[in-house]
Structure formats: structure tokens, C-alpha cells
Design brief:
Layout: H1 2-19, H2 22-39, H3 43-51, H4 57-62, H5 64-70, H6 81-98, H7 100-127, H8 144-153, H9 163-180, H10 184-198, H11 212-220
Length: 221
């Protein structure tokens, strides 16, 4: 009976955890089903299918609203489990802290601004002859811009001085690829983090910042 009771308590705790961040887990569920769908497509069909839902220059010029939404419903690479972990660590925490509406505003802002600014930079590169014309059809799908934006806004969730090491790690994670790779997606990720940091007005009134020192003290009793 003790094992049964413990299992039930665990299920209730897990259900409560999911209910506390509904947007995160609805989105993650959508990504699960779209990832399964990708695994049932032939490679050629998959590329065509995703390109029509991609926020590349060609599709943005034709159906900007549609592709900005649909591109965030697919995972580039087809591996869902790592995103399940990342969503639990970052998105769920941000949604619980900010509330669903503000969290969604951060996600949408980072996704849209990073996409538009990076694609405009790519368009300029094409027009200036620094990138081939075929780049207008580059495959650009995924949820990484929204993830980077949420990572940025979570800086304010951490109390000083602990937020500064977090911010330094965040800067290294996204600035090093930008400095070494210089692709439009690296640029987009950097824009996403800056967008998240610019969402500071949304964090006002969301409660006291988390202090790791206080948490460690509580664990020690």
C-alpha cells in the first residue's frame, strides 16, 4: 500500500507540475506529434514539406504570419527528448514565474524579432553578393529563438550577484558561435537573447528573485 500511495503522490505531483506551466507542455506535446510525423516522411518529402513551413526569405515574402507560426511547431533534427528536458528547465520555469501570457509574449517577441532581423541580414548579404541567391530558400524552422529569448529573460529571475555568472555563461554560449560561425542563425540567437533581456518590463511584479544561497541554506536545514 505504501508503494501504491507513493506512486499516486508522484503522479499528482507530476500532474501539478505540468498544470503549473500549461503553455509549455501543450507546445511540447505539439512538438512530439510533429516530430513523430517527420520520422514517417521520406527525406525528399520532408525537405519540401519543411521548406514550405520555413521562415526563409521566400516564404516570409509570401506568407509571413503563417510561416512564423508553423515554423515554431517543428524541430530541426527530429530529436524530441532533448527539447523535453530544455523546456522543463527553461520554459516551464519562466512560465511559472511570469504567468502564461507574459511568458508567451517573451517567446513570440524573441521568435519574431530574431527571425525578421536575421532574415533581413541574410537578404542584404544576398543582394550584396556575399551569399548565393539560393539562400532565399534556406530551411529555417525550429524553436531555438524562443528558447534563447526565455533564457535571456530568466536572467532577472536570479538574484544579484548570482545572475552575473549566469549572464556570462549565456553570453558565451551564444556569442562564441556568432564570432566563429557568423551564420544568420547564430545572429538570430544573439538577437533572441537580447530580446529576452529587453523584456525586463514584463518581469515587474513577478515576485522576489531566486537566491541560490538561500536555497542551499534551506537544504542544509
Amino acid at each position: 500500500m505504501d508503494r501504491v500511495s507513493g506512486f499516486r503522490r508522484g503522479l499528482r505531483a507530476a500532474a501539478g507540475y505540468v498544470r503549473s506551466a500549461p503553455g509549455t507542455y501543450v507546445w511540447l506535446t505539439v512538438l512530439f506529434f510533429t516530430t513523430v510525423a517527420l520520422h514517417h516522411m521520406s527525406p525528399d518529402f520532408e525537405q519540401d514539406f519543411l521548406r514550405q513551413r520555413s521562415t526563409n526569405i521566400h516564404e516570409l515574402s509570401r506568407n509571413p504570419v503563417r510561416v512564423l507560426i508553423t515554423s515554431a511547431m517543428w524541430i530541426d533534427g527530429g530529436h524530441w527528448l532533448p527539447y523535453a528536458v530544455l523546456y522543463g528547465v527553461f520554459h516551464a520555469q519562466a512560465e511559472r514565474w511570469l504567468g502564461t501570457a507574459r511568458w508567451l509574449a517573451v517567446c513570440a517577441s524573441a521568435h519574431v524579432f530574431a527571425t525578421l532581423i536575421s532574415e533581413l541580414a541574410l537578404l542584404k548579404a544576398v543582394r550584396d553578393g556575399h551569399a548565393p541567391h539560393s539562400a532565399v530558400n534556406t530551411l529555417d524552422i525550429g524553436v531555438s529563438y524562443a528558447m534563447a529569448g526565455v533564457m535571456g529573460v530568466l536572467t532577472y529571475r536570479i538574484a544579484r550577484p548570482w545572475r552575473y555568472p549566469y549572464l556570462a555563461v549565456l553570453a558565451a554560449v551564444y556569442a562564441i558561435p556568432l564570432a566563429t560561425g557568423r551564420t544568420f542563425t547564430d545572429f538570430g540567437h544573439a538577437v533572441s537573447v537580447l530580446t529576452g533581456l529587453a523584456c525586463f518590463p514584463l518581469v515587474r511584479g513577478c515576485g522576489k528573485a531566486w537566491n541560490p544561497k538561500e536555497t542551499l541554506a534551506a537544504l542544509r536545514g
